[in-house]
From TrEMBL:
Required for efficient N-glycosylation. Necessary for maintaining optimal levels of dolichol-linked oligosaccharides. Hydrolyzes dolichyl pyrophosphate at a very high rate and dolichyl monophosphate at a much lower rate. Does not act on phosphatidate. Its EC number is 3.6.1.43. It comes from the Eukaryota. It is a multi-pass membrane protein. Pathway: Protein modification; protein glycosylation. GO terms for molecular function: dolichyldiphosphatase activity. SUPFAM superfamilies: Acid phosphatase/Vanadium-dependent haloperoxidase (SSF48317). The lineage of its organism: Eukaryota, Metazoa, Chordata, Craniata, Vertebrata. Pfam families: PAP2. It comes from Poecilia mexicana. This is Dolichyldiphosphatase. The chain crosses the membrane at residues 32-53, 106-122, 134-153, 165-182.
Amino acid sequence: MALEEQCSAPPRWQAISVTHVEFPEGDLTGKLLAYISLLPVAILVGFVTLIVFKRELHTISFFTGVLLNEGVNWVLKHILREPRPCAGSHTTVYAEYGMPSNHSQLIWFFVVYFFLFLYLRMHQTNNARCVDLLWRHVLSIVLLGMASSVSYSRVYLLYHTWSQVFYGAVTGSTMAIIWFFFTQEVLTPLFPKIAEWPISEYFLVRDTSLIPNILWFEYTVTRSEARNRQRKLGTKLQ
């Protein structure tokens, strides 16, 4: 259906509780896409959770880039001042302007940055074995599908036009490329010094950028510590 027809006869909207994301009443596809459009919110929650529990400098830098990307989106929206499609059709809209799409810009920033991390940074630190390459490719396809779905959901639900979503994706991708190389070339060499700051030591902030495989490192260290404690406990019981 053309956008003009959708705007001339807007559907009755039903909102997902708490989030206020609206979808056409009785439209199962719209309901699914409404939940998919919440993925950027889940990403932000995931970042905060990782920072609180891991306190790793690269994660903090990644999240800083996300916040900077959000700031750029706000500035562009208030410079361009392009209205959303079907103005007034939704009962709850947090931002008046639609160019560029906030959701599209955020999700493509996240996905493109992750692509670069998988294929450039991890390539430098891990052996390019078949299994490693396979899971990177599979994860990349999943991320690409996720970003495309979020972008499409914003058009389907009449929150944005195709051009607003497209330029949001372009802006987010560009910001991700800039921020990734800035992190790699400027910030990463500074991480060891930052980790030694008194405030970093107080809040247990750490730098794992020099560890080739952080998952394997954490697994082996945790297993070794658990075995040592088990031996000590067994010695005490004897």
